[in-house]
Amino acid sequence: MNDVRELLGRAAADAGRPVISTEAVYAKAARVRRQRRATVSGTAVCAVAAGVFLVPGLTGSAPAGPQTSSVASSDGSPAATGRAARLTALLPKGVGAVEEVSFADIIKHASPLPPEPPRTGPLDGQYAVRRDGGVGYLTVDVMDAKAVEKKLGGGAPAVDLCHPTNGEPAPGDCVREELSGGRVLTIWSDGMDYGDGTPQWGPELAARLTLADGTLLGVRDSTGFQADVVQGPLLKTPPLTRAQLRALVLRTELLPGK
Asked: What is the dihedral of CA 6, 7, 13, 18, to 10 degrees?
């Protein structure tokens, strides 16, 4: 499931960049599956894709989107500036060329772009990763304890995403780790097969780190999306391996005040 998606896709509609809302998306995905089961049993329903990022299509050429940071390759060339450069410095060599993008631009084609919301984490944002002719995406988003309480309700971050209690199947390849300092790290895979729509996201890995003070950090590691207009074809695999994603999520540079 896509528990991290709203946290990773917080306020895409009003912020211009998606944010993480884990449990909300998880619940919506559950509703989608229930709708599908109802359809099979004879009830006419329409399966809606879960999360602000979902909805498929075809390939085409991408418009030139606004770039707040120049392209940078994780092998050290050429040099980037801003958040893309700082994120690149945290990634292993060979990941690809990293560029900060706006989903409001490349997916919604919003014009004018909505104002950028305040960022909680220093590297919060959406990043295209270009490699071997394809384009995948990394999204980073942090919610502080107050935002988590308001959006998800008290106690929600403590939920064991790998063992849902609502009757839904567990996310694919889900691993939950209890770390030092009261931190909880959950990583899972998602085939993103939620029916028709535009754009259609490819398979991805998702990670959520819960801190003892209630802060949530979510990172989405996506092979990309298909739509009428795209920046490039899907990557064959997510930009980061599971081990690389784990290492990134545990970097303190993603957290406020670090």
From this structure: -110
Residue closest to 52 by CA, chosen among 201, 231, 153, 152 = 201
For 163-169, the CB contacts below 8 A with 24+ separation are 164/1, 164/26, 166/30, 168/1, 168/26, 168/29, 168/30, 168/33
CA distances from 25 to 84, 89, 212 (A): 27, 31, 23
Report angle CA 204, 177, 207 to the nearest 5 degrees.
25
* Angle formed at CA 187 by CA 181 and CA 190, multiple of 5 degrees: 160
pLDDT in tens, the chain (258 residues): 444 444 444 433 333 333 333 344 444 444 544 444 333 333 222 222 223 332 222 223 333 333 444 444 444 444 456 999 999 999 999 999 999 999 988 888 877 777 777 789 999 999 999 999 999 999 999 999 888 888 876 555 567 889 988 778 889 999 999 999 999 999 999 999 887 777 899 999 999 999 999 999 999 999 999 888 888 999 999 999 999 999 999 999 999 986
Helix, strand, coil fractions of the chain, as percent rounded to 5 = 25, 25, 50
What residues contact 199, with CB distance under 8 A and at least 6 apart?
53, 54, 55, 56, 57, 107, 225, 226, 227, 230
pTM of the model: 0.71
Q: Are 176 and 159 in contact (CB under 8 A)?
A: no
What are the residues facing 209 on neighbouring strands?
185, 217
Q: What is the rounded CA–CA span in Å between residue 227 and residue 53?
A: 12
249 φ/ψ angles, rounded to the nearest 5 degrees: -60, -30
Q: Exposure of 181 by Cβ count < 10 A (0-12 exposed, 13-18 middle, 19+ buried)?
A: exposed
